[in-house]
Design brief:
Layout lengths: L2 E7 L4 H19 L7 E7 L5 E2 L2 E2 L2
Parallel strand pairs: 1-2
Antiparallel strand pairs: 3-4
């Protein structure tokens, strides 16, 4: 059972989340033969003030 944890800065719409879920599950089905029903996806929307690259925060 695949488990995907996607973390990103900012908010996504419901439509964007649905498209991401479809693309990820389609890819796992096509490349690894994993059925869509067995794939779990968690999207963590992180505020920029809590996300840094090196010593620079995005928020």
């Amino acid at each position: 059972m695949p488990y995907i944890n996607l973390k990103l800065v900012g908010k996504l719409s419901k439509e964007q989340k649905e498209k991401i879920a479809k693309e990820f599950t389609d890819t796992l089905l096509k490349v690894a033969g994993k059925p869509k029903e067995a794939t779990y996806l968690v999207i963590d929307e992180v505020a920029g003030e809590n996300w840094a690259k090196g010593d620079k925060f995005f928020g």
